[in-house]
Amino acid sequence: MTTHEVQQVHRIAVRFSGDSGDGMQLTGDRFTSDTALFGNDLATLPNYPSEIRAPQGTLAGVSNFQLQFGDHRIHTPGDKPDVLVAMNPAALKANSKEVRPGGHIIVDADTFNKRALDKLGYADDPLTDGTLGDFYVHAVPMTSMTLAALEEFDLSKKDKERSKNMFALGLVSWLFSHSLDSTKAFLTSKFAKKPHVLQANVAALEAGWTYGENTEVFGVRYEVAPATMEAGVYRNITGNTATAYGLVMGAHRAGLQLVLGSYPITPATDILHALSQLKRYNVMTMQMEDEIAGIGAALGASFAGKLGVTTTSGPGMCLKSEFMGLAVMTELPLVIVDVQRGGPSTGLPTKTEQADLLQALYGRHGESPVAVIAAQSPADCFAAAYEACALAIKYRHPVILLTDGYLGNGSEPWKLPDVSTIPAITPDLATAHNAVDAKGEPTFHPYKRDPQTLARPWAVPGTPGLAHRIGGLEKADGSGVISQDPANHDRMTRLRVEKVNRMVADIPDLAVTDPTGEADLLILGWGSSYGPITAACQNLWKSGVPVAQAHLRHLNPLPKNTGEVLRRFKRVVVPEMNLGQLSKILRAEFLVDIQSVTSVRGLPFAVPEIEDLINQHVADLAGTLQEA
Amino acid sequence: MTTDYSDLTELAGTAFVPRVHSDRVLTKKEFVSDQEVRWCPGCGDYAILAAFQQFVPELGIAPENMVVVSGIGCSSRFPYYVDSYGMHAIHGRAPSLATGIATSRPDLSVWIMTGDGDALAIGGNHLIHALRRNVNLNIVMFNNEIYGLTKGQYSPTSPAGLVTKSTPFGSVDHPFNPIRLALGSDATFVARTIASDRQHLTATLRQAALHRGASFVEVLQNCVIFNDGAFDGLKDTTDGARILRMEAGQPLIAGERCVVRDPLHGLTVVPTSAVDESKILKHDPKAHNPGIAFALASIEGADNRDFLPIGVFREIVRPAYDDEVREQIRTYVDAAGGLPTDQDIASLLAGRNTWTVS
Lengths: 628, 358
Hints:
The complex is a heterodimer.
Chain A (H helix, E strand, L loop, with lengths): L4 E5 L1 E9 L4 H15 L2 E7 L14 E9 L12 E4 L2 H7 L8 E5 L5 H6 L16 E5 L1 H8 L7 H5 L2 H12 L5 H10 L4 H20 L5 E5 L7 E7 H16 L3 E5 L6 H8 L7 E4 L3 H13 L3 E6 L1 H17 L3 E7 L16 H6 L8 E4 L5 H16 L2 E7 H5 L1 E5 L19 E2 L5 E2 L25 E3 L14 H16 L10 E2 L7 E6 L3 H13 L4 E6 L1 E3 L5 H7 L2 E6 L4 H10 L4 E4 L8 H21 L1
Parallel strand pairs in A: 1-8, 2-5, 5-6, 6-7, 10-11, 10-12, 12-13, 13-15, 14-15, 21-22, 21-24, 24-25
Antiparallel strand pairs in A: 2-4, 3-4, 9-16, 14-23, 17-18, 20-22
Chain B lengths: L44 H11 L10 E5 L7 H4 L3 E4 L5 H11 L4 E7 H7 L1 H10 L4 E6 L34 H7 L4 E6 L3 H13 L4 E6 L22 E3 L7 E2 L2 E6 L3 E6 L19 H7 L10 E8 L5 H15 L6 H9 L3 E4 L1
Parallel strand pairs in B: 1-2, 1-3, 3-4, 4-6, 5-6, 7-11
Antiparallel strand pairs in B: 5-11, 8-9, 9-10
């Protein structure tokens, strides 16, 4: 046994990379779980190809999982990894340029044979030709060592090789002084019915750890102290799971059954998976024949007095738009979750983007207002989904919740909320007549609105005396009978818009963080750019850079102080993973000369990118001020 | 949550819909809304509406426990005229809405009123999936073989060669046979009737209402404006009856002709006088194998209306989708001791791996 120096570091980014069949997502998940249990703050981002099993050993088939963990608040999965685990030459080729100079690259040396290198166009072996001189390269024969560790097992060679991801996990766990206990517990429950597979995986895991411990391949081990976090009980959660749970919470608080109509689509499918598990929580899920039927079944359930929800991603939003129009017209509660991905069309199915904002706001024919909320971090999807339910039910209106692939698949620690403090949602179903007809008889008017919220009564089938017909045709204000009257249509159109605008009463003001108190520059984001923007601002605030940060959660209606906040600053910069959609809205609404910064690479902004941006603007503003 | 699904074979379509008190006599009037009916004078839709409003009181369910859903088209105005809950939705999508309603509410009798364009063109996908799932709802498809509301274009059931505004030189589209489509979707109840035959229409709707699962009823219905006389051939009886009225257990005889098994084509039509009575096929809509039903729908003369079978082609028992969806939920809710409490939700949120920061 050798002794290793243990070095304390504040934060580390690790990227696991391999063929899409190498089990890198599972390896990353397990490492994340161990890290979280140890008490580090963290953020993760899987990055995988849209092909389930692209040809082995090719760049197209490389699947990545990155996490950043630290002893302080972590807002992003990190930009340049400090450690890359590459299970084959393709994984190395796809990622080595992004590793931080001075970082570690751990490869499965057994996979670096001539055939594999030729396939990728390597003239020489990159492990020995000096091209990786900037890094500490550790060529570990993972495949053969895994096979050796499993020699005694009655498994095929192929099955034994499949455990090499556990070898890698064991080795990395050793490198970061992580216990193997939680992964062993996980494997025990996962392979309860396959003791052979369980024992093989545990043996491979331990072999990886022992390899680190017994060799001098690594001169050093690292330790990242637990982060200082608010007291409470935590778990790690992905955005898609948090969204599912937020919807369950909303329905539970409203005392309504949650009814999901959905259709599988990347990267939203995990919400369907999660909710399909929750029969015990009275959740009804219907995997329908297409996206249209998904929202149709959800709206039907809402008409029937349930909380209808549909989940999708961009292409599905296009298909659902006619039904969203019907939901606007019939003024029924409905939650539509759009886990945005790169577009247009099939686009980048597994990559992230924020380019559905204008579609969410305006992507229907006619004047068709819909409330739009955007979650800002994986764990925040819970609160955002709950809020979408609350607004939909209170105002009898469709609400779109925008998340994205980065939030949906990414994860972070979540401080569990105290369920008892989550406010009630009152569906307030109609039970009685609310008008009198021409003959003076009591009757029911389905479009007689609440004077405060403008919400119409929600009378569900089965309620005696309130039978009524609604639909896509314009209805007379109040009585709800079909009306083609010009003045009525004008009035109803404005009423629908006004109703959504009145949701502002339930929306907090836009908050500005400006620790220096003297910022002329406001950096304003929405949705998942919260992570990199916050990390950049927090880094710069440490050195007193005068920049203020604000983040929009409500895109329609906008918080009532939005214009005032924008006008308070000499310059407002809005970074977005689209070509300037929020900037366009803010310019149009408030006549403020927003500086738009855009990126559509299928990846979140990098923190240094935002820091540079802020520094440039701060310098520019200082220059301008000097001249003035 | 307390409904008993133990003996599905005995369940009627309205099994879980509350019945009105035995003292209350439901009348047609209770199912008539205050809206003026606005179909063209002479439209076949009037007959369907009248037959529907006439027979539904028999079901013993109050109007508020009925939901009529429709898409777009002349037929889809139907919900406005029935004083129940109703939704006049978007083109072709009624089956998806109705699936959401029927699955989440077993206490409602759910009807889809649709047409040949709404159900078979823009809504074809939803129709076949509602049928194969066997959602407990009733689909009444008014087939006038034309688009009426958009003023006369050919539909998915228009015969090839039909001259319309969008096919001025004759349609080159091959039409759907709605019965064969429904059978191909493995529908559990498939029937055809004619709007002009009030008694047959009423009897067919009644049978559809009592079926548990999805029932599909094609109603041949004349459009007086854009396709008048499309079904006139059926009235012509000079060379013998052209309509075969199928009744369970009865030999399949229409006028001078009857149906017998044919080794080559499955079934064939022959003069009744030419065969021994024992050779005439007896109708069995409950046969699980849809082969004979399909052969009847395809029988020689059916596509050109020389010999058209009407009545119930198929009526079999298969668990309804919505019953099974609710049953799964009920099983897990019951096993856990009832609907979730705050504590249950808290443990869901926590999951299996938590840690405490103090």
